Amino acid sequence: MSFSSEIKEELSRQISTARHCRLSEIAAILNFCNHVWEGDESAFSIKMHTENLAVARKYFTLLRKTFNIDMNVSVRQNKNVRGNRSYDVTSYMDMAAVRHILIQNLCCKRAFIRGAFLASGSISDPEKGYHFEIVCNTAEKAEQLKDMIGSFGMEAKITTRKKNYIVYIKESSQIVDILNVMEAHVALMNFENIRILKEMRNSVNRQVNCETANLNKTVSAAVKQIEDIKYIQKTIGFGQLPESLAEIAELRLEQPGTTLKELGQMLTPAVGKSGVNHRLRKLSMIAEELRDHKEENLL
């Protein structure tokens, strides 16, 4: 089961005790479900079609608890490649009863956003990325939903995809907030656990990469130092060097993998890391001068 399906399954089992919130959620499902048919004016028949059992179950339960109406539920096997089942919930009511509901209370806005997500929303697996979206078939609906989400302190954005308008959130912290608004508390905890683990892994990876880079830099520097020291030894020998430089040159050849700090502690008297680094840089400068002098003689 996908992460979106898990959330919808959780939300399908939450039924608001307040009638006005149930009306708001019904209104959202009818407004955002792309497959709603109205019958003739005399029968006021509305058929809601979905391939998600959780959505069908939630819609049926909301209608049963909110209105005293008759309903029919039909299930059929689709002939597409996936062979999914689809569900039709047919009710006999005037759609105007929920179409023009004025939603002002925060609790009703929560219910409306929840219904909109059930009808046409999705969220990516947090293991792969952070993306929450609700598909709207008109710009007006998208702006209304964006403003409603904004009333909870979140900044949703709108983009287009084919003929639809997509209200989306990409910030992981705001996806946590929208899950809280919809009261998907189990999904919220799962999302947070995954997010924390990902951040820990990323932090460890950054630290390992940093340490690896520093190690590579240290190794490269040590290799260059040894090359320079060996060149000095081959050309003029250590006897031509000041005692302090000759001492560190011999020690570096004996201890090629030792850190500068450890090298300094081996000297008599002991020298700090910066002091060792200064002496090794002096040796590198001498080696470069010797190489330049050799090239001038060849010319």
Would you kindly provide a written description of the structure presented here, covering whatever features stand out?
This protein is of the alpha+beta class. It is 59% helix and 14% strand. The chain has two domains: 3-183, Homing endonucleases (Endonuclease I-creI); 219-298, no CATH class. It has eleven helices and eight strands. The strands form two sheets. It has a four-stranded antiparallel sheet, covered by helices on one side.
Quick tags:
single chain, 299 residues, alpha+beta, Endonuclease I-creI, four-stranded antiparallel sheet, 11 helices, 8 strands, 59% helix, rod-shaped
**Count, helices:** 11
- Strand content range: 5-15%
User: How is the CATH topology of the largest domain named?
Assistant: Endonuclease I-creI
The general outline is rod-shaped
- Which structural category do the helix and sheet elements fall into? alpha+beta
At the first level of CATH, the class of the largest domain is Alpha Beta
Q: Using only CA atoms, what is the Rg?
A: 35 Å
The CATH architecture of the largest domain comes to Roll
| Mean pLDDT over all positions | 86
Terminal CA distance: 76 Å
The major β-sheet equals: 4 strands, antiparallel
Which regions are unreliable across 5 or more consecutive residues at pLDDT < 50? Answer: none
Number of structural units classed as domains: 2
Strand order of the largest sheet: 1-2-4-3
Work out the number of β strands: 8
Find the CATH superfamily of the largest domain. Homing endonucleases
Q: From N to C, what is the helix and strand string?
A: HHEEHEEHHEEHEEHHHHH
